Amino acid sequence: MARLLVDPEPKVRETAFRFYKTFPLPLEGEDRRVTVALLSDLLRSSYRTARLAALDLVASSRGKLAQEISLAETVKALAVQEEAELSSAALRAAMTFPSLMQDSETLSVPLRTLQNAVQKASSAQVPENLLAISLEIAFTQTALSKNPQVADLLDQFIARRDTSRWTLLLELAERNRAVLGSLQMLSLVSDAVVSPDESLARRARDLVRKNPSLARNPGIAAALAESVEGEAALSRPSDKATYAIPGPKGNASPATVPLDYGFFVQRVMPVLGAKGPDGAACVYCHATHTIFRLNPPPKQGDYSEAQLRENYRSALKVVDPDNPENSLILRKPLSTAEVEGTLGTGTLAHGGGQRWNGADHPAYKTILDWIRGAKLTSNREP
Q1: pTM above 0.70, yes or no
Q2: Pick from 354, 372, 258: nearest CA to 313
Q3: Backbone angles phi, psi at 147, to 5 degrees
Q4: Mean residue pLDDT across the chain
């Protein structure tokens, strides 16, 4: 069937394009050599549909063609050309070649696509299929996912809080669960769960239902609790907010928001609002962050309840209740800004510089107590 993709007769090519997936190409033994030659011919064909089909077949090979150097070079050539549909299909195929996922010229395409998406006012100005695969590569391929420049681009992309962009990212998470290992993606899911856009919120909740382990993330747990509370239009529970998540066999089991909201408001928020020797405070520097994003204090009056809840949920994104000392909210303020934005240092950096001189600092101890489960005697509930 695949050979008919280059048939001189247009109707034959059209039929072949519709049905080529129903006849898997052999990739074992002697047949492999014939298949590789056929794919090479299709990729070099003057017929666009033949090239698209061949790229799809390569992408579905699950890496079995990874050692075919000449095939990889042909895929690369299609990835770096200007036509968006062919380029996006080639990038998807390129993901099956480890060599191409380390190749700077190939990776320049998703990098440039992300740059364009950040610069454009709307994602609609960047071809969606090209943007989708570029995001997938940025989140899952180490050469980009560990790149500070890419991390910054993803932060900017997410920070616009554009519904279409967030929907694209949730679709990516549904398609490739590997992206759920990213703190940026977990942060987005947490925020999307309580989005005022009901379609987006529903999609995020469905994602959590299909991936129950997500509900054990403190930030997502708090968002789910808040979402359920809003849906039910009930008064706040007298103790910690609860909601149901699927158990191992699909049975609902209760989960709780583990950290005390009252302690956060009364003890942790003053720490985040305190100015350091440089005159800066967390609540101001983090006002534009994507993950640990904080509402700065109003110019007049006190924080609203909604602002405090947002800050609470945001702080939960950077805590590790199972290993409190490993929480980013504790580790970052102990770090310096010296390696901020530097690739491959292996050292945790903090753009705001070192805020505390060690684990004996009162601010560190206060937040550590909160993560360990400290509560106020008189509690404000989330």
Answers
A1: yes
A2: 258
A3: -90, 120
A4: 87
250: alpha, beta or left? (left if phi > 0; alpha if psi -120 to 50): left
Task: For tokens 């290993």, name the residue.
Answer: 323
Q: What is the pLDDT of residues 108-139, one digit of tens each?
A: 999 999 999 999 866 568 899 999 999 999 99
Q: Is residue 320, in this structure, part of any structural domain at all?
A: yes
Structural domains in the chain (count): 1
* Structural domain containing residue 332: 261-371
Query: Considering the domain boundaries, does residue 266 fall inside one?
Result: yes
The H or E element spanning position 132 is: helix 128-140
Among the listed residues 227, 217, 216, the one whose alpha carbon sits nearest the alpha carbon of residue 254: 216
What does the CA dihedral 282, 284, 288, 290 come to, rounded to 10 degrees? 20
How distant is the alpha carbon of residue 302 from its chain centre?
Answer: 33
The reply to whether 288 falls in a domain is yes
How much is the CA Rg of the chain, to the nearest whole Å? 25
Per-residue tokens: 141: 């391929």
Answer whether residue 317 is part of any domain. Answer: yes
pLDDT attached to residue 252: 46
